[in-house]
Structures are given as structure tokens and as C-alpha cells.
Amino acid sequence: MAKIRVITCVCLLLLSGALFAQGTIRVQQKSYRVEGDLMIFEGEVRFFDGELKIFADSIRYNTKTEEGTAEGNVQIVSPSSLFYASKVVFQLKANRMEALEVTGSLKPDLSLRAARIVQTKKGEFRFYQGNFTGCTQCNPRWQIKASRGKLVQEDHLELWSATLKAKGVPILFLPYLYYPIDNNERKTGFLMPSVGYSTFKGYTVREAFFWAMRDNMDLTVSGDHYSEFGNGVSGSFRYGDWQGNFLTMKGAQVGKDGNSDYLLQGDGLFKTVKGGSVGFNVNMNSSVTFLQNFSDSFNYALVRNFYSSVYLKQRFGRLNLQMNADTSESYFSYNDRTIKIRHLPNLEASLYQSALIPRFLYFSFDGGYARTSRLFGEEWTTVPRFTASPTLTSTLKLFPWLFGTAEYTRKNILYGKGYEDVKGKRTLTDKDLYVSQDKVSVSLTGPSFYKVYNTSWSGIFSKVKHTVEPVVTYSYSSLNDEDKAKTPNLEWNDNLYYDHSLDFSITSRLITKKAEGESPREILSFGGGQSYFFTPERQRIWFQLPTGHAPIKWSERSLFLRAMPADTFYLSLRGTHNQYYHSFRNLSVSMTFHDKGNTKYLELTYSRSKTLRPDLDDTPESSDFFKGRLTFVPANSPIKVTTFIDYDVKEKKLYSAGAFAVLKFQCISLNLDFKKVGYRPSGKDTQILFGISLGNVAISPDLWNEMKSF
Questions:
Q1: Which helix (H) or strand (E) is 3 found in, with range?
Q2: In whole angstroms, what is the distance from residue 175 CA to residue 170 CA?
Q3: On the chain, which terminus has fewer CB atoms closer than 10 Å, C or N?
Q4: SS3 content of the chain, % helix, strand, coil (to 5)
């Protein structure tokens, strides 16, 4: 009897894919008999091994050949699966099991049917003429039928010659599909393909493979086909660890008939010794015009900045040292102009504020060396530059309601080249040029006023506090006009401007409390500012005065307003009003709203910019843009829709508009992306992209349009 039970246990363990499992084993049956080398167990045969349970009507086992057969309502139950089969044949020596007419379920929410399943090793099965689905309904919303496949328990499925059916209708054929079936959200495998059409790119097909290398590292590689652009490939790599080290890279390339274009972006940071780090960031492309034509990002239609660098940082207390090499490219679409600047190398030293007299006088320092190059036409102009800028800062609390700050900076610059008048022509020579500038600023904050109102009668707020905070700042920057004329202005840091002004600003705030003991919350702030120029004839202003107008004493007026009456609403207005042209030179208005359930989200933005510089022929006179974003989830609906629009108000031109819709219907997600693009240099474009997500297998990403905007 003992020998019979041991053989039974071994056979059933093979059958379940849990060979030679250890634990408490129990076997129950109504009867058994022996016919030569054949052992026959009959009548509700039950096998228990811990959490594993196996049931069958009968089991026949040949002790000589070590072959067995289980028939009649065969069931294999484990915490992660449940299988039914009409018949199971197994061989002990060959470590092989074959089941017929198999129906089963796997966690998480996966159902499987197959005409035949063969076990090749523990936990691994091959099946033929099967289908599976992630739906739990009696009538599945979708299923995939395959001629053959491979199942690794609690890991993944591999399918060959697979056909995706929705409600019984074939909609997609896949020669190969990898489907993860464990609870890990990041699992190696092929993603679902997406298809679409664009009047500019033609018909598109995209497929991607996701490789979960480790818990903190993964890679996505995508293949793309465009009927009008040829074939492309894109990829994304991510790495991060608990120490704060990280590396992200994204790249895409597309080409046809020997022509190729690319985009590469990424950044990384790795910590070295205490206080030190080495890092990089890269943003490169083959052609900005190509990006405008190929990418669906509205940002590429405006001014674009591409910056790449590699750097090394080290901190010693309050002293920071940095060495880097970088290159930048700024593209201005309105006049098709590009500015390219390089630093090879750039050394910087910064000393944070150190107390000379505690709570009163502080010292800080900025300096370094840079070898700056800028492209003019077809030639690079290179100028070395040394800088040293010590700063003294004094802070003083004059009264509880009045706070003062004074700051003095001596900016010293030594250029390895400078401009000279050579035979009546301004020429860049190798003669050293030393330039210095003194900067002084004194700021007073206050006196601040406030008043608290008891508003418990409103039923909304218990108290409202109104504050008024004025700030007055005196600024002075010296400037030698002769030195300025000799300075080689390769970039913004080389610009030296004279300043002698008195700045006034005031901010008013409303702060509320809903109830006693709760934290106060600001619901409204507004204010403005203006500057008075002591020597307006030398002061730099951001606009050109109307013809015949005398030098001005007062600057433009800056205004702002922020309203946050509830956690779900935000309104912001900011602008610069020019009293000489009686209009806003800059104006920005934005509003966001979302409900508490996050089923609706609305964002509206209007921006207006006027140059007011008729002397600059290559600068646009003005621009007016309106942007809108709306996301909503209808009540009791599986649909989520996001719509957007980018519109040029001045030109009455649609830059881009479209909608993204996601339909999550129980175990299947349908993704629809519709866009109209009007900013391409090559013309307008209408496109549509469609994809399906099944369970935990998402659609292939479009990395061209996931790139960051620097």
C-alpha cells in the first residue's frame, strides 16, 4: 500500500508541473487494483500536496515503463492556476506530460483553451490549436487564437500565428506575440502594435519590444514604417537606483532612399566621492526643419533650444566647483536663423554666502574660465574669458515691519581678445581686454500692513487676512562705454548694461482660514511695479520709443494676479503694460480647473507678445496664441477623452488641434489619436492613429512625440 501511494504521488506531481515537491502528501481514492505491471486507481482520486490539489476519475500507471494515464474530469488546482483536461498521459523516465482538451485559468485574470498541451519541464508547457483571453466574462470581449504557443507559469505566454478577435470578429494578425502573465507591471515582451494614417507621413505601422532588464532598468525598442518616409527605429532606456544615480536616453531615426534624419535626447547623473557627481545631458537633431515637418509637437513650431553638455561637479562645504563642455543651438523659426555656441571647456567656481559678521554681513563669490566659440556664417570665432565677481551682502531687520538688504558686486572680466579700431574698421584682435563693472542694490521690504476680518457669518471662511507688502529697490550698475564697445559679445553673459533706477512694487494678498486650528491658505494675490530712471538717456529699455519722443523717466508697468479660491481652480494673469503705446507689450492669462474626482480637467492659456522694436527688421511685430486642453470622463462611462487646440489669434491660423480617446471596456482598451497639424513648413497634415491594449500589454509608444522640450 505504501509503495502504491508513493508511485501515485510521483505521477501526479509530474502531471501538475511540480516535480518532487516536498511537503505533506495525502491520496484518497475509492478503490485500486493491480493487473500485472499495471496499477489502476478509480473513484474520485484525490491528491493533496500543501496548496496543490489534483482530482481525477481514474489513474492507470505502468510500473515497468513508468507511463501513466489520468482520465475523467482531470483537475489541477494551485494558488495561481486551475486546469481541466479530458485525458492526461505522462512518462516518468522522459519527464513528459501531455494533456488533451484543456481548459484553464491563470492569475491575473487569464483564461486558456487548447486542443493539446505538452509539458517540457517544470512550469513550462507547449500548447497547440489554442486561444487565450484576459476577460473574465462567460462571453469574452476579446481573445487571441494561435496555432501554437508556449506557457511559462506565472511568467509569460508566447504565441505564433496569432489572430486577435474582438466579439468574435478578427481584427489583427500577428506572426508572433509575447504576453506577460505575472503581477509585475514591468515585464519583458512585445507590446501591441499601432496603425494609422497621415496625409504627410502616409500609412504608419509601429511595433515595440520592452525589455525589463532589472527592477531599476529597462529598454524599449520600436520599429516604425511610414509609406511616405520609409522605415525608422526608436528606443528608450531608463536606469535609476536608490542613491540618486540615473540615466535616461531616447532616440529616433527615420530614413528613405539613402536620406536619414534623427533625434537624440537624454540625461544622466552619477555620484562620485562625497559631494561630487558627473553627469551629462544631450539634445541633438539632424535638422530643426525636419523636426517641424515630422514631429507632432506644437513646441517645435516656435523657438527651439537644443543644449548638450558633459560636466563634473564637486562640493567642498560652501564651495562648488564645476567643469563642463557644452554646445547649444537656438533656432528662431520666424526668420529661419540659428545661433550656435560652444564652451570647450567651461570652469566655474561658486562660494555660497559665508558670514563675515553673523546675521549682518555675508561674502559670496562667482568666477571661472570659459573658452567660448560662436558660429558666424561658416566660421567659428573663439574667445577665452576669465571672470571673478566677489559680492558683499548685508541684511538688516530695522523694525518688525521693515526689512532691508544691501548688495555690492564687483564684476571683473579678462578677455583674451577684444575689438580695436584698425584703419577705421572695427576688428577683433588678439589683444587682451580687461572690463570691470560695479553693481549696487539696496532694497527695503515694508512697512507691511495687514488686517484680519471675522467672516464666520459667511459659512465659508472663519477669518480673512488682508496684507499689503511694498518693496522699494535702488539699483546702480556702472558702465564704461569705451570698454563696452571693445567687448566681444558672443553670448548673453558678455552683455554689459548701465542701470540707475528706483524700482517700486506692491503686493496685496488675501489669506483665509476655514476653521480654527486649520492651516491658512492664500486665495488671492495681486500687485504691480514700475521703475524710475535717473539717467534715462543711458538706461536700457525693452522697446523703442515712438518717433520724436524724449527719453523716458518711467518704465513700463508690470501687473500680476493669482486667484486660487478652491483647490480645483487656478487663475493667473501677468503682463507688462506700455503706457507710451497704450497697450500690453506682454500678456499671459491661464486658467485651470478640475473636479474633485478628476473626471474633468480644463486648461486655457492666452499669450500675447509685442516687440515694439521697429528697428529690428528680422523680429516679428507681435504674436497672439491661444491654447486649450480639456480632459473629461463621462459619468458611468469607460471613455476618457482629451482634446486640445493651439491657435494663432493674430494670423487666424490653426497650428494644431486634435483629440485622444481611450475606451476601457473591462479587459480591453481601444486608443484613438486624431490630429490636425497646421504649422509644418511643408503644409498641413491630418492624421489618425489606432491601437489596442490587452490587459497588461500596452500599445507601442511613439518616441518621436514623447521627446522632452528643452
A1: helix 2-16
A2: 14
A3: N
A4: 5, 65, 30
